[in-house]
């Protein structure tokens, strides 16, 4: 009788590679995303400016007005991120120190409220509490909404540091401050940057509501287009907001790849 050769069973690696979709390499994604942003932004601008606009539309869809509200949106986002970093990173560092760790659930819970509450509700509440409008009334609630990712990741980053590395630093005569600055913080940076990337995208998206309190931003175009049934202005504002969100997400990805410790990239 002729022996029938047994077919070798597929290895776990082969099965995994066949069933798991391949991810694009990091560099490929970093190159594709800005191209998508450019196509979206340039495409919608060319489309909007080439339309036969009415006098009302010309007031909204003009180079000066579009540039102005886009700049307002960028300034709001940058201010929010600066506030979040200035509050969340030092606070997260403090909450991982002995003697303050018991307070971590309290502050994370407060930040959770900001993340869970509807942004439009917080903006209205800030307005009702202050009875005023303007830039800071738009920025403050957005910063509160964007606080959690950076605070939580800062705490997590310090918690993930190997205690043996801390002991080794102390064994070399480092002070508590030196251990924090040279060992703990650099190793926590990748986690902080990941949280920052999330906060950036949250800030850009939520900033479209800042027009409600006269803080400006691309939400003005969206609101104007909706109220006047002007699809050109509406689409222009919406697509530019999406393009800006993708742009800041790309910047966050760049920061994750280039600002972390060299050994962890």
From TrEMBL:
The keyword ATP-binding does not apply. One of its GO terms (cellular component) is plasma membrane. Pfam families: BPD_transp_1. Residues 70-252 form the ABC transmembrane type-1 domain. It is a multi-pass membrane protein. Signal peptide: none annotated. Keywords: Membrane, Transmembrane, Transmembrane helix, Transport. The keyword Transport applies. InterPro entries: ABC_transp_perm/SBD, MetI-like, MetI-like_sf. It is found in: Cell membrane; Membrane. Belongs to the binding-protein-dependent transport system permease family. This is ABC transporter permease. It comes from Nocardia camponoti.
């Amino acid at each position: 009788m002729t022996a029938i050769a047994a077919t070798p069973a597929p290895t776990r690696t082969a099965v995994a590679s066949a069933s798991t979709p391949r991810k694009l390499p990091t560099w490929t994604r970093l190159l594709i995303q800005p191209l998508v942003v450019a196509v979206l932004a340039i495409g919608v601008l060319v489309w909007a400016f080439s339309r036969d606009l009415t006098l009302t539309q010309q007031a909204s869809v003009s180079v000066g007005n579009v540039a102005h509200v886009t700049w307002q949106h960028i300034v709001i986002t940058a201010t929010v991120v600066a506030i979040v970093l200035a509050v969340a990173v030092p606070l997260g560092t403090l909450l991982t120190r002995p003697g303050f760790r018991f307070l971590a659930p309290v502050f994370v819970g407060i930040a959770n409220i900001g993340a869970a509450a509807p942004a439009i509700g917080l903006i209205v509440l800030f307005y009702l509490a202050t009875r005023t409008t303007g830039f800071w009334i738009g920025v403050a609630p957005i910063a509160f909404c964007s606080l959690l990712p950076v605070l939580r990741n800062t705490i997590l980053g310090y918690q993930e540091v190997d205690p043996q590395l801390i002991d080794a630093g102390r064994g070399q005569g480092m002070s508590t401050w030196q251990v924090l600055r040279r060992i703990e913080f650099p190793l926590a940076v990748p986690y902080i940057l990941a949280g920052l990337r999330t906060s950036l995208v949250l800030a850009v998206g939520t900033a479209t509501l800042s027009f409600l309190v006269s803080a400006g931003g691309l939400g003005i175009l969206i609101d104007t287009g909706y109220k006047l049934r002007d699809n050109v202005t509406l689409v222009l504002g919406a697509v530019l907001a999406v393009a800006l969100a993708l742009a800041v997400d790309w910047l966050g990805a760049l920061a994750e790849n280039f600002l972390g410790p060299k050994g962890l990239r």
